[in-house]
Amino acid sequence: MALLITDECINCDVCEPECPNDAISMGAEYYEIAASRCTECVGHHDEPQCKVVCPVECIIVNPEAVETSEQLLAKYERLTAG
């Protein structure tokens, strides 16, 4: 499952540098996570680092991008190939 940053985001800038897949960027009003790049840190860490550092706990599972652990691992392998 890719993650999603809700509108409760305070734009504190701590999540973006923690993402090993460069999936987080500033959107029109607050940070956003690109579902195509988010692996929930599978392959890199035991838990999503953006959620670990978020002071307002505004990062949730994206209900529109539900993926299995196997799919997340395959995405990680595709993103890190080459």
TrEMBL record:
Stretches assigned to the 4Fe-4S ferredoxin-type domain: 1-29
UniProtKB keywords: 4Fe-4S, Electron transport, Iron, Iron-sulfur, Metal-binding, Transport
Cellular component annotations (GO), alphabetically ordered: cytoplasm
Name listed for the protein in its UniProt record: YfhL family 4Fe-4S dicluster ferredoxin
PANTHER family per UniProt: PHOTOSYSTEM I IRON-SULFUR CENTER, PHOTOSYSTEM I IRON-SULFUR CENTER-RELATED
SUPFAM superfamilies (alphabetical): 4Fe-4S ferredoxins
Domain of life: Bacteria
Single Gene Ontology MF annotation: metal ion binding
Cofactors that this protein relies on: [4Fe-4S] cluster
